[in-house]
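new request in #modeling-help
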Amino acid sequence: MRWNAEAIPRFLFALYMGAFFLYLFAPLAVMGAATFNASRFPTVTPWRGTTLEWFAALAKDGAMWQALWTSFVVAFFVVAVALPVGTAAALVLTSLHARARSLLYALMVSPLLTPGVVIGIATLVLWRRVGVGGGVFLIVVAQASFIICYVMLMIAARLQRFDRTQEEAALGLGASKFMVFRRVLLPFLRPALYAAGVLAVLQSIENYNTTLFVRGFDTPLTVYIATKVRTGLTPAVNALALIMIAATVIGAIAYEVARRRQTRRG
Amino acid sequence: MSHSVELTNVGMTFGATRAVGDVSFAVEAGEFFSILGPSGCGKTTILRMIAGFLQPTEGRIAIGGRDMSGLGPNQRPTAMIFQSLALFPLMPVWENIAFGLEARGASKAERRAKADDLLKLIALEGFGDRMPGELSGGQRQRVAIARALAVEPQVLLLDEPLSALDLKLRQHMRAELRALQKRTGVTFIYITHDQSEALAMSDRVAVMSAGVLQQVGAPRDLYESPRTPFVASFVGETNAISGTVVEVSDTVATIDTAHGRMSGRSGEGLKSGGTARLYVRPEALVPGLDVENRLTATIERSDFEGAFALLHGRLADGSPLVASVGNTALAEAPGPGESAAFGFETRHAVVLADG
C-alpha cells in the first residue's frame, strides 16, 4: 500500500521534469553538436566526422565580428537609455493615484503589446521626417522604446515592496530628497537594476524584427545571421552560438558563486 | 519652563473625514508627554503633523516658540521613531545612527565617533558594523532611538515603538526609554493605545477620542479625576452606575440610581434632574465597608491575579460590577455564589454628566 501513495506521484513528477528539460535543452544540444560536424550545413545527420574547423571559420569571419560589435554597441546604449528612463517611469508610476496609475500603466506597457515590426517601421517613418535615417542611433531608439517597458515593470515590482516609512525616516532625519534617493532608494533598487540591465542587454542583442527596419547600413548580429540563412548558413554560426551559451552559463555560475559567498559572509 | 511644542486649535481634514478637530495643548521642554487613545482616534495624525509629514488644515503648531507651518520634516527640530522603526536595512548599524549627521554634511570620522558614542549610550558597543537584520527586536529598538537622538532633536516623536515587542521586553524598554529621556533631557512625545504604558512612563498624558482631545493631565489626575465619561472608562478599569442627579455642589454630587442613592465628587456640567453616571474603580469597592455609598452584588467568579483578585459580580438589575481585593484581604472576601455588600468612600467616586 505504500508504493501507490508515494511512488506514483514521484514517478510522474520525475517523468514530467524529464520531458520538460528535454523539451527545453534538446534543440540546444542538437545545435551545439552540429558545431562539431564536418558537414557544410548546420545539422547532425549525416555525421560527416568530428571537426573544430568551424571555430576557425568563425574566427576568420570578419563581417560577423563586426556585426557582434555593432550588437554590443547597441546593447550598451540601450541599457544607458532604458535603465534611467525605465526607473524614472517606475518612480512616477508608484507615486500616482490609483486611477492615473492604471491609465499611465496601460500607456507605458503598450509598446510591449505592439508587434516589433510596427515599432521598427514607425520609428523609421517618424525619424525620416526630421532627416534621420536608419543606423545604430535609430536601432537604439527603436529598441529602447520597448525595452524601457521591461525595465519599468521590473523596477516597479521592486518598488512595490519598498517600505515608504524608510523614506519618511530619512526625511525626518534631515535628508534631502536627493539623499533619500541616493542612500536609501537606490541601494534598495540595486538588485532589480542589475536584473533589468541584464534583461535589457539580452533583449537588445536577440532582437531582430524591430532592428531590421531601422538598421540602415549597420548590421547587428541577428540581422547578419538572417542574411546568412539566405546566402548559405554554415556551422560557424553554431560555433558562435555555442560560445555565447558557454559565456552565459559561466556568467550565471560566477554570479551564483559570488552571491553565495556574500550570503555566507552575511 | 518654556513651551517646547505648542498646538493651537489644530485640525486636520482628509476629504470628508475630520481626523482631528480643534486640538490645543502645550508640551513643556524636557517633558515626557504621551498621547493616549484607541486606534483611529487621530493621535498618529497629530504626531505626523508635529513631525511635518502632514500640514494641519487648521490652526498652528509651534516648536520652541517658532511657527512650523510650511516647513517639511527635514526642516524641523524633531526626530521621529516609527512603529516599524524603519531602520535602513542595507546600511550597517553605525551608518544608520549617523544618517542624520551625514545629511548635515559631517565628515566620516565625525560620524563614526558620534555613532560610537551613541552605541555606548544604548549599551550596544561594538555593534556598529553589524547589519540591522542581525539584531534582536530590542536591539533594533535601541538603534532606532540612537539614530533619532544623533541629530540632537529638540523633540523626539515616538509612534508606538514598543508595540511589536513581547511583554517582558516591552516593560524593560519602558524603563529604559524613561531613563534615557531623563538623562538626555529631550522632550518626548509618545503615542500609544496602551494606557498602562502611558501611565507608567509619562509626566503628562493627553487622552484622545474620535479626533477630539478629552483631557490632559498627570497620570494620577487622569485616573483619579477623569473629566469626561470617555476618560473615566478608557483609562483604567471602572464601574459605571447611571442615575439622576438629585443634588450637586462644587465638590460633591448625589445621584439616585436603581441601587439607591449614592454620591461622588462632582464633575463639570452637572444639573439637578439631569442624567449622570457615577464611576467607581474596582479597588475603591471594599467588601463590608459600612458607609452611605453601598452596592450589593452576587459574586459570579473571582479571578486571582497574584497581588490582588478581581471579583466579578452582578447587581440586582443584572449589570456587572468588578471589585478588586488585595491579596492580604482575600481570606475574608466573599466567594462565588455569595451575595456581598460593597461600600465606597464618596471621595473615591466621580459623578459625570452623560455626554
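bot summary: Residues 137 and 165 of chain B are 7 Å apart (CA to CA).
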